[in-house]
C-alpha cells in the first residue's frame, strides 16, 4: 500500500518551481517578466529525464539530458541561499536554457490550478521521479485531479502540431458512445495515435516525445494505484489526438462519415458491450495540452460544484474519470493528446452452466464426438476431479506418466540389491528354479520415492513410520496430493464426509521388516502392515468420516475398489425406492497400490511359471510368455456433480464387477463372464459399444489371457463403424497387480484429454491366437489420433481369482489439435454474474437484470444494449440501479400469469397456504403473527403450486434480496424475518407486501410491524411443536410433550444408555432449518449459550452424563425469543440459556498469525473489528468464525482478491480451503471489519491499513470525496 503525503517533497516538485528576477535589466529578456516560472539545476547536478523511459521502435527517449553550463557544482541538499555566487542551469517552461546566478532565483508558489496555475512541475532529475509520482498520486487521491506543468519550446510545439496535421484517419465516434471518450458536448475531430501504425510519420518527432511523456507518467502512477486509488493499473491506452476542424467542408465530411448505431451494431458486433468494457477499465484520464491556450476543461462531480481547469499549452491534466465526468471546451486552434490509465478487465471464470448439455459442448468447441453424459434421470453425474500417481519409470504425477507413455519407454529394470540380496533366491534357469525365482526384472518405483516419507507432515513418529509398510506411506502421500489438487487442505478435511476406497493385495513387508527376529510383536504390530490399516490410516490422519474399504481381489483390486466407490456415489432414480441403510456420500478418493518388497511372492508366482523369463509384458505380441511384475500407487478423487461443474476432468459413466464362478480353473480367464461385465458397465453408462473409442486392456502378455480378453471384447464391440484402439500400460510399466486397474484408468483419462493414444511397446508381430476377423480393431504401435473432440474409453481388469471389473469414462480433449476445453462465450445465450447487492443474476458487462424466465437472444449471445449515466460503475444490476440512462433502459421482469397468489410460512409450521389479497395498485398484502422464537420464514406461490413460486435469490434472505419467479421453488429459498434485531415482541403482527417495481416490473418483498387495536383479533397465534433428536434413538425425531399449566414449556423423558453419555438437539416443528443447539459441540457445562433456531446446528449437540438406566428429563422453554434448555438427572439439573440483545453473537478471527482464534470487538451495532500486524512473509490469511466454529465461517467465494472485491459467503460449512488474504509490508498494521448487515455482499468482511496516527485508511471504494 502506498502512503499519502500532503507536504512539500523537495526537488523536482511544484514547490521547487522558481521565478526569474531582474532578468530584464541584466539580460534584456522582457518576455520572462510576466510571472514566468522555470526549473533550475545547479551546475554539476545531473540533468537527466525524470525516470528511465521505455525505449521502443519510436526511437530515442522523450527527454535528452541537458548540457551543463560551466561553473562550480554544489552538494546535494544544499539550499539556494547557501549557494550565492554559484551558477545554475535554468530551463523555462518554454524550453529555453540559460546560465543564471543562484542569487537571482527565489522560491515560487504557483496559483491554484482552477485559477490558471498548476499543482506539480515535471521533475528536473531522475531522482525526483518517485517523489513526483507520489505527489501526483496524492493530488489525484485527495481532490481527484492534478495539473502538471511541462517544459516545451516553441519549436518543439510547432513540430508536434505539424505531426498532428499530417496524421490521417480523422473521425468522430458513434454519437451514443462518444461521451465516454470525448466527454460532454464534444467538438473537433479525433484520431488514434496507434503505436502499431507503420504509416504514421511521427516516429522520433516531438509528438512522439509527448506521447511517451504520458507513458512516463503512467509508469510512475502504476505502482501507487492499488494503495492510493484501490485498483491495479496495467498500463495506458494508445494516444488519442484531438484537433479542430480545418474548415466547414472538413467538418461536414467527417460528420457525414460518422457511424450510426443500429441493431446490427449492438446485437451482433457488440459495439455497446465493447464500449462498456472500456468504461469499466478506464480509471485515470491524461490530457496533454500540446498547443494553443484558451478554453477550459470542466470536471463534473456526481454531487457538488463542478471544477474548471483552464487549458494552458505545455500542461498535463490528470483526473479520475471513474469518478468525474468532463467537458472539453478549447479555444480555436488548440491541439491535445489524450490517453487513459487502465485497470484489469473482468476475469470471467465459468462456475456453473445451465442448459442442455449438447449446447454447452458446442460452446466448448466440441463439434465431433459424444456429448457429456448425465447419470440416468437424476441430472447428476460422478465426476473425476483430480488424480496423482507414483509409478515405475519415475512416473511421479500423471504428466510424467503420460510423457513416459508417449515416448514409448520401457520402465523395466533390474532388481536393485537395496531391496534384498538375490543370491539365495535367484536362479536364471526357469526349469531349475525350484523354490526360487527365475525373473529378476520388474517395473520398480525409484527406491527414494518408494521409501522416502515426510513423517513430520503427517504427524507420525519417525521410528513408527520406519516400521510402517511403505504402501501405507505411499497411500498417505498420493492420497493427500489427490485431495490437495481437488481443493482440500488439512483444515477442511477434518470431519469431512469423504469415502476412502483402496485396492491392495498385500506385500512381503512382514517377512522383510516385521519378522519377529527384527521387529518384536507389540500393540502396534498389526497396524504396521495390515491391509485394513491402509484405508483407515488416511481417514484417521486427516479426520475424515466417510465410508471406507480395502479390496483384495488380486489383479483387479483397484478397479473393484473403483466400482465400490462408484456405488457409494450413485443416486437413486426417481422411481427407485431406497433399500436398506444406504449411506450416500458426495466425495470419494480411490487408491490402488502395490509393492515389490520381498522375494517370497516372486517365488510363489514363478512356481506355476506365470512370470516372463525376460521380465517384460509382450502384450498382444506373438512372443508373449508371461507377465512382468510391477509396483506403484495411483489415486483419483471423484465427486457427485450437477450441471457442468468447474474443474471437472472426466465423467465416470459406468462400472461393473462380477465373478467367473465355476470355470476351467480358479486362475484361468473366462470369456463369457468378461463379456457380461462389459455389458453391465455399458448399460449403466447408457452407451452403445460403437461409442467406445479406446479399450485399455488387462493385457498381461500371457499366451492364454490376451486372446481370451480380445475375444471377449470382440463379442461385445464388433458391431461398430470405426476401429476401436486397444492399448495396455503393462507393456510400459509391467503388471502392477493391485494397482493395475487404477493405473489403466489414469491412462484412459490422459488419452482422452490429449485426443491420442500412445504406442504399445514390444509389439512386433500380433499373437496368432488373437482373432480379429470381422472386427474393426487397431493395436496401436505408434501415436494415434482419435480424430474427435471427446470420447469414451473403458478399462478392464481381471483378477486371477476370477473377479472381473470394468469402468467406462468420458472426457473432452483439452490438449493438442483437438482440444475442446476453451469456452467460446459467444455461443452461450447469457453470461451472468450475481449482483452483490440483491444477489440476483445480471449480465456480466452492462448489469442488465436477468428475468426469471429469460427469452432467447435473437442473435447469439446477449450483447449489452444500454448505457447508464457517466458516473455509474455497473457493479450492480439494473434493478438496484436507480439512475438515468444515456441509452436504452432497464430490463423488464417476466410477467406474472393470471391466477391467485398464496403464501406459506413457518408461523403455522408450513401447514397451510393462505390466499394473499391484491389492492388496486397491484400490491399483494398479507398479515402474520410472530411466534415465540421471533423468527419466521415464508415464500409466495400461484394457485397453491410450488412449481410457480416466488422466492428470494438466496436462502434465508432479507428484504433487499431480489424476488425470482414464477418458477419451481428452490428448497431453503425463503424470506427470513428475524425480529430479534428489531426488538419486535412475540405475538407482533407483521404486514408483508409484495410490490411490482414501476420501472422493471420486478417484485419487491418487504415487511413491517403494525399496531393492533385492543380486543379479539382475526390473526390467531399458532401452537408450535418441538422435537428432540437424541443418541438414544439414533437421532430420530421424537415429539416433546407440552407441560400443563406452563406456557411455552415442553419436555421429554428417557433413560441413559450403556455408555453413560447421551447427546441431543432440539428442533421446532420437525424442521431442521429451525434447530436449537449449543454454541459449542458436545456441550456439558453450564454457561454455554444456546443458539438457534436456524440451519447451522450440524454437529452441535447438548451432552449429558449419568448412570446406565438413570432417568433424564429434557425441558425446553421458548418465550419471546429467549430459549432455556435444561436436563434433570436425579437431583442434578443442567441448564443452558440463549443470550439476548447485541451480545447474542460472537465473532472470532482464525488467522495465520494466530495460534488459535481471537475475538472481534463490537465497534457499533452489527459491526465488529480487530487489528492485526503483518508478519515477515508480507501476507496473512484468515477467516471469520461465529462462536469459534469452522462450520459457521465467513469466507471469500474465490481466493486472491483485494478487500471489498469478492463475494463473502457464509456463515456456513463451505469454508474449506478458502481464506481472505491481506498483503502488506512486514510490521504494517491492518484493521479487519465484519459488517453483517451491509447490503453489498463484497463488503461484509473488509480490511484497511492503519495510518501512523492510528486511524484506518479509507479506500476509494468506500468513501471517496468525489462520490
Automatic annotation (TrEMBL):
Residues 43-75 are annotated as: Disordered. Residues 379-811 form the Ketosynthase family 3 (KS3) domain. It holds the Pfam family Ketoacyl-synt_C. It comes from the Eukaryota. GO terms for biological process: fatty acid biosynthetic process. One of its GO terms (molecular function) is fatty acid synthase activity. Keywords: Phosphopantetheine, Phosphoprotein. InterPro entries: Ketoacyl_synth_C, Ketoacyl_synth_N, PKS_assoc_dom, PKS_Beta-ketoAc_synthase_dom, PKS_NRPS_Biosynth_Enz, Thiolase-like. This is Ketosynthase family 3 (KS3) domain-containing protein. It comes from Alexandrium monilatum. The lineage of its organism: Eukaryota, Sar, Alveolata, Dinophyceae, Gonyaulacales.
Amino acid at each position: 500500500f502506498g502512503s499519502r503525503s500532503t507536504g512539500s517533497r523537495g526537488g523536482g516538485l511544484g514547490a521547487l518551481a522558481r521565478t526569474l528576477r531582474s532578468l530584464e535589466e541584466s539580460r534584456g529578456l522582457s518576455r520572462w517578466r510576466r510571472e514566468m516560472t522555470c526549473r533550475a539545476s545547479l551546475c554539476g547536478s545531473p540533468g537527466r529525464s525524470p525516470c528511465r523511459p521505455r525505449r521502443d521502435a519510436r526511437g530515442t527517449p522523450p527527454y535528452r539530458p541537458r548540457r551543463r553550463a560551466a561553473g562550480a557544482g554544489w552538494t546535494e541538499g544544499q539550499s539556494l541561499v547557501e549557494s550565492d555566487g554559484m551558477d545554475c542551469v535554468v530551463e523555462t517552461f518554454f524550453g529555453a536554457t540559460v546560465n543564471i546566478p543562484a542569487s537571482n532565483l527565489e522560491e515560487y508558489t504557483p496559483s491554484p490550478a482552477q485559477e490558471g496555475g498548476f499543482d506539480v512541475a515535471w521533475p528536473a532529475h531522475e531522482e525526483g521521479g518517485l517523489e513526483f509520482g507520489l505527489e501526483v498520486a496524492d493530488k489525484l487521491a485527495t481532490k481527484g485531479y492534478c495539473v502538471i506543468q511541462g517544459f516545451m519550446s516553441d519549436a518543439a510545439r510547432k513540430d508536434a502540431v505539424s505531426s498532428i496535421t499530417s496524421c490521417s484517419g480523422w473521425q468522430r465516434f458513434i454519437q451514443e458512445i462518444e461521451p465516454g471518450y470525448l466527454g460532454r458536448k464534444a467538438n473537433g475531430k479525433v484520431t488514434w495515435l496507434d503505436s502499431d501504425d507503420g504509416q504514421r510519420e511521427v516516429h522520433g518527432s516531438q509528438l512522439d516525445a509527448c506521447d511517451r511523456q504520458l507513458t512516463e507518467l503512467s509508469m510512475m502512477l502504476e505502482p501507487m494505484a492499488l494503495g492510493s486509488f484501490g485498483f491495479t493499473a496495467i498500463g495506458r491506452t494508445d494516444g488519442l489526438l484531438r484537433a479542430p476542424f480545418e474548415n466547414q467542408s472538413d467538418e461536414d465530411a467527417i460528420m457525414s462519415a460518422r457511424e450510426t448505431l443500429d441493431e446490427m451494431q449492438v446485437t451482433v458486433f457488440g459495439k455497446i458491450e465493447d464500449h462498456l468494457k472500456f468504461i469499466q477499465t478506464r480509471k485515470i484520464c491524461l490530457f496533454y495540452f500540446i498547443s494553443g491556450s484558451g478554453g477550459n476543461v470542466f470536471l463534473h462531480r456526481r454531487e457538488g460544484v463542478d471544477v474548471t481547469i483552464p487549458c494552458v499549452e505545455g500542461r498535463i491534466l490528470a483526473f479520475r474519470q471513474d469518478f468525474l465526468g468532463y467537458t472539453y471546451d478549447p479555444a480555436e486552434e488548440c491541439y491535445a493528446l489524450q490517453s487513459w490509465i487502465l485497470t484489469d478487465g473482468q476475469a470471467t471464470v465459468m462456475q456453473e452452466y445451465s442448459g442442455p448439455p449438447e449446447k454447452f459442448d458446442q460452446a466448448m468447441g466440441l463439434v465431433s464426438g459424444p456429448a457429456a453424459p448425465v447419470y440416468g434421470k437424476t441430472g447428476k453425474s460422478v465426476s473425476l476431479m483430480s488424480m496423482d500417481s507414483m509409478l515405475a519409470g519415475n512416473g511421479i504425477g500423471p504428466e510424467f506418466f503420460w510423457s513416459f507413455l508417449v515416448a514409448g519407454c520401457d520402465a523395466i529394470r533390474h532388481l536393485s540389491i537395496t531391496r534384498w540380496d538375490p543370491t539365495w533366491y535367484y536362479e536364471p534357469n526357469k526349469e531349475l528354479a525350484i523354490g526360487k525365482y527365475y525373473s529378476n526384472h520388474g517395473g520398480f518405483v525409484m527406491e527414494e520415492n518408494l521409501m522416502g516419507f515426510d513423517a513430520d507432515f503427517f504427524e507420525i513418529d519417525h521410528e513408527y513410520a520406519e516400521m510402517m509398510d511403505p504402501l501405507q506411506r505411499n497411500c498417505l502421500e498420493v492420497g493427500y496430493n489427490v485431495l490437495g489438487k481437488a481443493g482440500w487442505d488439512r483444515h477442511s478435511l477434518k470431519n469431512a464426509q469423504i469415502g476412502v476406497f483402496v485396492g491392495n493385495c498385500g506385500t512381503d513387508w512382514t517377512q522383510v521388516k516385521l519378522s519377529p527376529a527384527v521387529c518384536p510383536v507389540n500393540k502396534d504390530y498389526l497396524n504396521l502392515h495390515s491391509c485394513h490399516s491402509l484405508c483407515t490410516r488416511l481417514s484417521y490422519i486427516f479426520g475424515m468420516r466417510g465410508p471406507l474399504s480395502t479390496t483384495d481381489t488380486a489383479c483387479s483390486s483397484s478397479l473393484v475398489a473403483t466400482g465400490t466407490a462408484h456405488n457409494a456415489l450413485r443416486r437413486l432414480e426417481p422411481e427407485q425406492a431406497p433399500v436398506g441403510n444406504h449411506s450416500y456420500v458426495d466425495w470419494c478418493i480411490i487408491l490402488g497400490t502395490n509393492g515389490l518388497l520381498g522375494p517370497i511372492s516372486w517365488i510363489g508366482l514363478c512356481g506355476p511359471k506365470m512370470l516372463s523369463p525376460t521380465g517384460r509384458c509382450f502384450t498382444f505380441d506373438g512372443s508373449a510368455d508371461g507377465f512382468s511384475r510391477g509396483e506403484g500407487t495411483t489415486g483419483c478423487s471423484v465427486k457427485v456433480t450437477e450441471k457442468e461443474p468447474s474443474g471437472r476432468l472426466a465423467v465416470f459413466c459406468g462400472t461393473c464387477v462380477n465373478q467367473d464362478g465355476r470355470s476351467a480353473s480358479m486362475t484361468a480367464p473366462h470369456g463369457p463372464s468378461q463379456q457380461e461385465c462389459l455389458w453391465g458397465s455399458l448399460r449403466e453408462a447408457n452407451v452403445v459399444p460403437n461409442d467406445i473409442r479406446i479399450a485399455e486392456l488387462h493385457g498381461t502378455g500371457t499366451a492364454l489371457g490376451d486372446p481370451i480378453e480380445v475375444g471377449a471384447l470382440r463379442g461385445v464391440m464388433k458391431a461398430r463403424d470405426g476401429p476401436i484402439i486397444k492399448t495396455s500400460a503393462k507393456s510400459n510399466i509391467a503388471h502392477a497387480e493391485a494397482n493395475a486397474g487404477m493405473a489403466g484408468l489414469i491412462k484412459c483419462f490422459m488419452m482422452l484429454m490429449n485426443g491420442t493414444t500412445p504406442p504399445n511397446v514390444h509389439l512386433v508381430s500380433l499373437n496368432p491366437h488373437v482373432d480379429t476377423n470381422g472386427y474393426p480393431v487397431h493395436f496401436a504401435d505408434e501415436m494415434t489420433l482419435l480424430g474427435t473432440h471427446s470420447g469414451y474409453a473403458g478399462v478392464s481388469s481381471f483378477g486371477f481369482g476370477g473377479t472381473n471389473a470394468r469402468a467406462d469414462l468420458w472426457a473432452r480433449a483439452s490438449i493438442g489439435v483437438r482440444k475442446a476445453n476453451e469456452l467460446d462465450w459467444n455461443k452461450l445465450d447469457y453470461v451472468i454474474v450475481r449482483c452483490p447487492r440483491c444477489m440476483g443474476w445480471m449480465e456480466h458487462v452492462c448489469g442488465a437484470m436477468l428475468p426469471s424466465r429469460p427469452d432467447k437472444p435473437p442473435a447469439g449471445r446477449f450483447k449489452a444494449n444500454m448505457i447508464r449515466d457517466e458516473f455509474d460503475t455497473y457493479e450492480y444490476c439494473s434493478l438496484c440501479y436507480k439512475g438515468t440512462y444515456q441509452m436504452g433502459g432497464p430490463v423488464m421482469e417476466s410477467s406474472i400469469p393470471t391466477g391467485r397468489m398464496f403464501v406459506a410460512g413457518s408461523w403455522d409450521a408450513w401447514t397451510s397456504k393462505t390466499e394473499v389479497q391484491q389492492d388496486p395498485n397491484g400490491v399483494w398484502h398479507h398479515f402474520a403473527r410472530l411466534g415465540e422464537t421471533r423468527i419466521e420464514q415464508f415464500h409466495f406461490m400461484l394457485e397453491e403450486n410450488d412449481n410457480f413460486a416466488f422466492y428470494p435469490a438466496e436462502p434465508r434472505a432479507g428484504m433487499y434480496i431480489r424476488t425470482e419467479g414464477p418458477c419451481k421453488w428452490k428448497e431453503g429459498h425463503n424470506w427470513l424475518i428475524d425480529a430479534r434485531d428489531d426488538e419486535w415482541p412475540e405475538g407482533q403482527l407483521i404486514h408483508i407486501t409484495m410490490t411490482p417495481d414501476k420501472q422493471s416490473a420486478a417484485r419487491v418483498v418487504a415487511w413491517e410491524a403494525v399496531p393492533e387495536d385492543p380486543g379479539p383479533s382475526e390473526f390467531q397465534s399458532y401452537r408450535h411443536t418441538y422435537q428432540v433428536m437424541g443418541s438414544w434413538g439414533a437421532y430420530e425425531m421424537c415429539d416433546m410433550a407440552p407441560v400443563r399449566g406452563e406456557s411455552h414449556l415442553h419436555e421429554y423423558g428417557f433413560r441413559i444408555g450403556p455408555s453413560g453419555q447421551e447427546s441431543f438437539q432440539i428442533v421446532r416443528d420437525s424442521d431442521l432449518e429451525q434447530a436449537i443447539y449449543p454454541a459449542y459441540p458436545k456441550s456439558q457445562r453450564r454457561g454455554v449459550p444456546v443458539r438457534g433456531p436456524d440451519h447451522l446446528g450440524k454437529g452441535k449437540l447438548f451432552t449429558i452424563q449419568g448412570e446406565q438406566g438413570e432417568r433424564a428429563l429434557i425441558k425446553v422453554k421458548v418465550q419471546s425469543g429467549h430459549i432455556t434448555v435444561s436436563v434433570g438427572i436425579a437431583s442434578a439439573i443442567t441448564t443452558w440459556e440463549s443470550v439476548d440483545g447485541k451480545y447474542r453473537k460472537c465473532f472470532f478471527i482464525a488467522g495465520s498469525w494466530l495460534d488459535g482464534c481471537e475475538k472481534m470487538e463490537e465497534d457499533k451495532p452489527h459491526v465488529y473489528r480487530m487489528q492485526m500486524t503483518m508478519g515477515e512473509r508480507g501476507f496473512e490469511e484468515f477467516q471469520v468464525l461465529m462462536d469459534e466454529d469452522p462450520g459457521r465461517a465467513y469466507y471469500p467465494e474465490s481466493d486472491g482478491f483485494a478487500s471489498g472485491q469478492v463475494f463473502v459467503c457464509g456463515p456456513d460449512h463451505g469454508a474449506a480451503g478458502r481464506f481472505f488474504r491481506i498483503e502488506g509490508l512486514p510490521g504494517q498494521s491492518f484493521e479487519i471489519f465484519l459488517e453483517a448487515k451491509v447490503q453489498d455482499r463484497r463488503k461484509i468482511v473488509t480490511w484497511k491499513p492503519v495510518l501512523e496516527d492510528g486511524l484506518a485508511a479509507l479506500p476509494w471504494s468506500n468513501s471517496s470525496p468525489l462520490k
